[in-house]
Amino acid sequence: MSKPDLNLLLTLDVLLAEGNVARAAERLHLSPSAMSRSLARLRDTTGDPLLVRAGRGLVPTPRAIKLREQVGQIVQDAQAVLRPAEKLDLGQLARTFTLRVSDGFTENFGPALIARVREEAPQVRLRFVQKLDKDSGPLRDGIVDLETGVVSEQTGPEVRTRLLFRDRFVGVVRKDHALSQGEITASRYASGQHVLVSRRNLDRGPLDDALKPLGLEREIVTFVGGFSGALAFARATDLIATVPEKHTGNLRSGMFSFTLPVPSPELTVSMLWHPRMDSDMAHRWLRGCLLDICTVTTSREKSI
Asked: Are 171 and 240 spatial neighbours (Cβ–Cβ below 8 Å)?
């Protein structure tokens, strides 16, 4: 069975609206003979005469009357799809965005982002879900609208990225910890008891590799899956936590933070999204909000 010519929908819509071949031809900038040929094709395609002569004019058949409203809506919908996107009305935007973020990001940047979104688009809701791995599947499948994190080899090659901020690791202890007084050397740092953030069940991290050439080794007494957990332990015990500085600014409030006495890797935190969302105006607006919030928040962070 051959596929129908969808261009005939527009012709049918105009013919049913005008009820006159000549006027329909004029609206579509066609000759009357060309419109007559189109009407013949429509009759052949639908198996119905559609318009029949009554005196000097044409009247619609029962099938044509039934089709009139349906065809008109189809043509309107098609025209809406093909025309450029209208200006985004944030006041009327009603949508829920799902953000998959790494540990600590919600606590540190979430409140400001929610406040910004509520101010500009009161009907928009944000759903934050924890990022447990770097699999790009949720972005690809449309389960997640936007992600934050460090781009790696596991990130899908098609995924779009935008730098949010660069971060560094710092040491953190409770405010009256012994390390809050005096110079913090590599030896003093290593001699304390540590909590290690490990998402891949590793029993050592980059800081242990940096300490090894100095003949030093940390005593790691517990492992946690995220930065917020590490800081909770450090706040309540003598444990030393090592966490990203900007990523955990709010979480470290009231604690003593210090520059690490050994080199540590820099982190580049980005937002990630699927390319099908590139031109979505609401998604572009959300990306702009997130970028602004991260820029403002991280610029306020005082250097240790």
From this structure: yes
| C-alpha distances out from residue 277 to 72, 91, 97, Å | 30, 21, 12
pTM of the model: 0.69
Residues 99-158: pLDDT tens digits? 999 878 898 999 999 999 999 999 999 999 988 787 888 998 889 999 998 888 878 888
Counting every residue written for the chain, the total comes to: 304
Other CB atoms within 10 A of residue 86 CB: 8
Tell which residue, 145, 140, 159, 142, has the closest CA to residue 101.
Answer: 145
**Angle, to 10 degrees, between the axis of helix 32-46 and the axis of helix 7-18?**
110
How many degrees, rounded to 5, is the angle at CA 167 between CA 242 and CA 203?
35
* Beta-sheet pairing, 267-273 with 146-150: antiparallel
Residue 56 CB coordination number (10 Å)? 5
> How far is 25 from 31, CA to CA, in rounded Å?
6
Q: Taking the CA of residue 4 as centre, how many other CA atoms within 13 Å lie in the half-sphere pointing to its CB?
A: 14
- When mean pLDDT is compared across 11-25, 72-86, 139-153, 193-207, the lowest value belongs to 72-86
Task: Tell me the mean pLDDT in the region 179-200.
Answer: 94
